[in-house]
Amino acid sequence: MVEGQKITHVVYNQENLVKDLEQYADEIIDAENMVLIPGMVNAHYHSYTNLLKGTTNNLPLEIWALYTMAYGYALEDEDIYYAVLLGSIEMMKSGVTSCVDHFPHIGTSEAALKAYDEAGMRVAFAPMLHDVPDEQFFQIAFPPSIQKQMSKKTAPSIEEMKSFYQSLISTWHQKDGRISIQLGPNAPQRCSEHILQLCKELSEKENLRIHTHLLETRAQYNQCRKHYQGGLVRYLDRLGLLNEKLACAHAVWLDDKEMQLLVDRNVSFIHNPASNLLLGSGIAPIPSFREKGANVAIGTDGSNCGTTHNLFEAMRLTAMIHRPSESDYSHWLTAEAVFNMATISGAKVLGMEGESGMIAPGQKADLVLMGTKNTFWTPFNDPISQLVHQENGSSVDSVLVNGQWTVRNGRMVTIDEERVFHEVKERREGLKGKWQESLKRAELLRPHFERILLDNHKS
């Protein structure tokens, strides 16, 4: 039984109690031949990339990043608004009720949050902070001809960033019990110590979680070993940032001691199997994290790095990707473990541990009804196994978020899908024109980043 935003009763085979509860119900749902699951959490996601499907996606991260930034420069408030709605449709119609949006375009944050508010989706919104560009971190010396063409934009000051976050918190944090704000340092090596100290200060003062990318590639790992005494993870520990409020996406390149330190500090991890594969970054040691007792959730990352925002796809990859390198099959991830990563573990990354991710009294009413009259569920043998290994999201029938319907009978309730599709198509040509200059800049910088990658793959 759902009342307001929460589940109040879960009843098994107690007909008298069910009849007693029915008399208080405004609506009774006949869910015969259906499966009810807790809403899933996309624990690492970039909403702006929903407008960048089919763009550059055959490059390693350091070069690919030049292009995704180039496309991103063209996006304005209305573009972001529709990008968020488009992603919300995709996620909710495939059973994802919550996401962590690691959001780089802080000037359009209000447009993004307005869209989430209208969509009815649960979101932890983590605007990115950064003031160290990759060329500075990798110590790339550009020739004068390129330096003249480099962007003259300067990062916001520490005080400006602090003011931005405080304003966002006062307006949006815990709005309707569905929208929350997190601190979103892009990646530690892209942040000065001043920014990281600001994150620590705001996290402690406002009780906010911190969400960041961590050591995705070999190039990042090698450069961090040169740049930070003892490596990046130990540097973050010296700054006091390693604790239960920190969640790290990717974490592909870690040595054993770094891994253990992160686990000992109760840091959460977010596995992004599809983007790590497409960008050639590597495979994160997820079974090792879990065996050490770490909280590990699942994310889809961006639309332009090899993913849909469908956690069924991500769960299936997670279940299979580690098996070839593990000869002892007793260490393979089970379907139940993977499903828990997409639900209970994701709730912890949201900052909702004990409030979301399960079907139990007192939990938030984020629920998904799935039809079983299809090939995925016929025959009906093991629901968890079939969710992870067979389902692709097309069985999703209806979705509740925070006790409110967002999808009914396969159709969006909160979003006009046709309007969103029409507006995104209409904006496509204008965007293509606006990002041409930025793409030229990416082409100029590309050879210099290619040298960095070649050097790192030799080491």
Structure, described:
The protein is α/β, with parallel strands linked by helices and 459 residues long. The chain is built from 19 helices and 16 strands. The protein has helices at residues 15-22, 61-72, 77-92, 109-119, 134-137, 144-147, 158-172, 193-206, 218-227, 232-238, 256-264, 273-278, 286-291, 311-321, 335-342, 344-350, 383-389, 417-434, 436-458, and strands at residues 2-3, 6-7, 34-38, 40-45, 96-103, 122-129, 179-181, 184-185, 210-214, 246-250, 268-271, 296-298, 367-371, 396-401, 404-408, 411-412. The strands form four sheets. A five-stranded antiparallel sheet has the order 3-13-14-15-16, with no helix packed on it. Strands 4, 5, 6, 7 and 8 form a five-stranded parallel sheet that branches. Helix 2 (61-72) packs antiparallel against helix 19 (436-458) and helix 3 runs parallel beside helix 4. The chain is globular and about 80 Å long. The protein starts with a strand and ends with a helix.
What is the residue-mean pLDDT, rounded to a whole number? 94
**Strand adjacency order, main sheet:** 3-13-14-15-16
Class by SSE composition: alpha/beta
Distance between the terminal alpha carbons, to the nearest Å? 59 Å
Number of helices, where a helix is a run of at least 4 consecutive DSSP H or I residues: 19
Q: How many strands, what sense, and barrel or not for the largest sheet?
A: 5 strands, antiparallel
**Spatial shape:** globular
Count of β-strands: 16
* Percent in strands: 15-25%
> In percent, how helical is the residue content?
40-55%
The radius of gyration computed from the alpha-carbon positions, rounded to a whole number of angstroms, is 22 Å
